[in-house]
Amino acid sequence: MPIAVCPGSFDPITLGHLDIIERATYIYDSVVVGIAGSPSKKPLFSLKERLELTGEALKGLKTVKVEPFDRLLVEFAKKNGAGVIIKGLRAISDFEHEFQMAHLNKNLDSSLETVFMMASPEFMFLSSSAVKEIAQYGGNVSDFVPANVEARLRAKYNQR
Ligand code: PNS
Questions:
Q1: What separation in Å is there between the alpha carbon of 8 and the centre of ligand 1?
Q2: Which of 34, 53, 76, 146 is 20 to 30 A away from residue 14, measured at CA?
Q3: What is the pairing mode between strands 113-118 and 84-89?
Q4: Ligand 1 atom 3: residue of nearest CA
Q5: Distance from the CA of 160 to the center of ligand 1, in angstroms?
Q6: Is residue 135 part of a domain?
Q7: What's the CATH code of the domain at 73?
Q8: Is 78 assigned a catalytic role?
């Protein structure tokens, strides 16, 4: 199958995101990871930092490229020639929001399909927000994020 986009704020990228993106590369010829500016979410990391961290974490995946976007997701997907939006689904709590976004995106562009991938069990309850909270209080996040992100979180929170 040709091109899929995998969108998110990636503030920061976690092993759960990595797992979904890697699994997407087994199905699609090319995967475009779209990093949304998401200013309303007041990200911890700037868009530039998120691009850097995500690019580093994904550099082993040769069919993946990382791009920023600050427009509608459907427009970003079209611009990249993608026919599919990949979203990871964790606990049931994700469902309502993702269901809404999938339907709105379908309404905006009926040629685009949203495909949901179940999170792997070990990442079912993992989120960027939880990672930031744990890191902020000096907790160990090495099971949850790639090494480059762990180091950057420590630097951000002035920890050794
Ligand atoms: O990782 P997140 O923050 O849950 O990702 C949300 C994201 C970036 C996928 C979503 O906010 C999005 O698609 N933003 C782009 C703007 C857009 O198209 N909004 C309408 C979608 S219903």
A1: 6
A2: 76
A3: parallel
A4: 9
A5: 34
A6: no
A7: 3.40.50.620
A8: no
What number of residues does the chain have?
Answer: 160
pTM for the full model?
0.96
pLDDT tens profile 107-125: 999 999 999 999 999 999 9
Q: State pLDDT tens for residues 42-92.
A: 999 999 999 999 999 999 999 999 999 999 999 999 999 999 999 999 988
In a domain, 99, yes or no: yes
CA 128 to ligand 1: nearest atom: 1
- Listing DSSP states for 58-76 in one string gives TTT-TTEEEEEE-S-HHHH
What's the structural domain count of the chain? 1
Would residue 13 count as lying in a domain? yes
Residue in 30, 50, 87, 90 annotated catalytic: 90
Ligand 1 centroid – CA 98 distance (Å): 10
| Cα pseudo-dihedral 126, 132, 136, 138, rounded to 10 | 40
What is the per-residue pLDDT for 92? 83
Ligand 1 atom showing the smallest separation from residue 11 Cα: 1
In the numeric block, which tokens belong to residue 140?
């160990």
Q: Evaluate whether residue 133 is within a structural domain.
A: no
Range of the domain at 63: 3-124
